[in-house]
Design brief:
The protein is of the alpha+beta class. It has helices at 2-32, 38-42, 46-60, 67-103, 107-138, 141-151, 154-164, 166-181, 223-226, 253-265, 298-319; strands at 189-192, 195-202, 206-211, 216-220, 230-231, 239-247, 270-282, 287-295. The chain has 3 domains: 2-167; 179-231, SH3 type barrels, CATH 2.30.30; 239-323, Alpha-Beta Plaits (2-Layer Sandwich), CATH 3.30.70.100. It is built from 11 helices and 8 strands. The strands form 2 sheets. A 5-stranded antiparallel beta sheet has the order 4-3-2-1-5. The longest helix has 37 residues, at 67-103.
């Protein structure tokens, strides 16, 4: 009994020592390379590392564990090893993304890399989880026997499983296609089925789109590879905003154009690139005036459109009320 207690105390002390030594080594590496965030991120792996260490030391101790207890500790070692690999992979990928963010100024390229790394992290995590569970099952004699008997009919089972999980597999491969074909990325503004929103999250099976009123629209990833949609920020987040006004034929168009120029000059939403004001159509009772101007992003485009519309209407109401549309009647 005393020997068992001393062995357990030694294992606990060795586990704590391994965790402390690894943590100190990572701190020193981070101090020597302050520009690399990977060392700080790897410190998150301390708990799974200590669990791997304690399980390995318990298994290595002679005649300490027997029977089902030893098998349970072995299962713990396999599970914690998979957990440790997932944590290390996530830390490395996050470090790569952080390094890329600090050296890249192109927002479109940064969004693409952020989406691809996020998707790669999920794929690797899923594969590691599947392999870990498979290894755990193979430690049971019954599972090995069943696996050997099913191996001969693996082709039929694969066909049945493929048909049954056709939607799931389709979404899985569609998610990979979206991540690496650059059709839609996290942060993109998209329009689908008359719904406009910003892509907030991309997984292997669905996308989360945040709508303008903060609702979340959950869309299967297969939608984005099978149906057309608008991506307003795929190449350049800048957009051309337009405002349409139905006005009277007596509208002083040059004065209205000058008012638009002054309004844009005083607006923080206008990017200073382009603007115009034209009469684009007419009817027997009104003319159609279109004002166009550019903005840096979809959100600023919406704000600029509202600002210009309010200002031009207020200007016409105060300075040229005769320009506002009216219903004309003929009196004999």
């Amino acid at each position: 009994m005393l020997r068992l207690l001393l062995t357990l105390l030694a294992v606990a002390a060795a586990t704590l020592a391994v965790g402390w030594l690894v943590d100190q080594a990572l701190q020193r590496a981070g101090a020597r390379h302050p520009g690399s965030p990977v060392w700080a991120l790897l410190r998150r792996c301390r708990i799974p590392l200590q669990l791997v260490a304690v399980a390995g030391l318990l298994l290595a101790a002679p005649r300490l564990l027997t029977g089902d207890v030893r098998h349970s500790v072995f299962l713990l070692l396999i599970a914690c090893t998979g957990w440790l690999i997932v944590r290390i992979t996530a830390a490395v990928l996050e470090a790569v993304l952080a390094r890329y963010e600090s050296t890249t100024e192109d927002p479109a390229r940064l969004q693409r890399v952020r989406t691809q790394i996020g998707m790669l992290r999920r794929v690797v995590g899923a594969l590691i989880a599947v392999v870990t569970i498979a290894v755990i099952l193979l430690t049971f004699e019954a599972a090995r026997t069943i696996g050997a008997s099913l191996l001969a009919s693996a082709g039929i089972i694969g066909i049945v499983a493929g048909v049954a999980a056709q939607g799931t597999l389709g979404n899985f491969f569609a998610g990979l296609q979206i991540a690496f074909s650059d059709t839609v990325r996290i942060g993109d503004t998209v329009v689908m089925e008359a719904q406009q929103g910003t892509v907030e999250e991309i997984t292997l099976s669905y996308l989360v789109v945040r709508l303008w009123d903060y609702r979340r629209l959950i869309v299967p990833v297969s939608y984005f590879v099978s149906k057309p949609f608008e991506n307003w920020t795929r190449k350049d987040p800048g957009l051309l905003a337009s405002v349409l006004l139905h006005l009277d034929h007596s509208t002083p168009v040059p004065a209205l154009r000058e008012r638009l120029r002054r309004t844009l000059a005083g607006s923080t939403h206008w990017d200073g690139a382009e603007w115009a004001l034209w009469v684009v159509d007419s009817t027997p009772s009104t003319i159609l005036v279109r004002a166009t101007m550019t903005a840096r992003s979809p959100d600023e485009t919406f704000a600029l459109r509202c600002t210009v519309r309010e200002d031009l209407i207020a200007y016409l109401r105060e300075e040229h009320p005769e320009a506002l549309p009216r219903i004309r009647t003929n009196e004999d």
